[in-house]
Amino acid sequence: MLLHGGTLPGGGAERAEPLAQLHGRGAVAQAEADEAVHGCDTLLPSRDENARVRALGIDVGGTFTDAVLVLDGEVRIAKVPTQRAQERSVVAAAAAVGGENLERFTHGTTIATNALLERRGARTAFVTSAGFEHLLHLRRQTRAHLYRPCARHPEPLVPLERCVGVAGRIGREGELEPLDLGSLSELDSETEAVAVCLLFAFRDDRHEHAVASELRRRHPDAHIVASHEVAPEFREYERASTTVVDAYLGPVLARYLHALADACGAAGLPSPLVMRSSGGLATLDEAAEHAAFALLSGPAAGVVGAARIASLAGFENVLSFDMGGTSTDVCAIVAGEARREHERVVGGFPIRLPTLAVHTVGAGGGSIVWQDSGGAVRVGPESAGSDPGPACYGHGGERPTVTDANLLLGRLPGELPGGIELDTEAAEIALGRLDPEAVVEIVNAEMVGALRVVSVEQGLDPRDFALVAFGGAGPLHACSLAEELGMSTVLVPAAAGVLSALGLVAADERRDAVRSYVAPLDEVGELPEEGEADLRYAGQSFELTVTLGPRLAERFHEAHEQRYGYADRARQLELVAIRTAEIRSAPAIDVSGPARAARGPQVLELEGATAWVPAGWAGKTDPHGTLVLRRGV
Question: Domain residue spans in the chain?
Answer without folding.
Answer: 117-253, 509-584
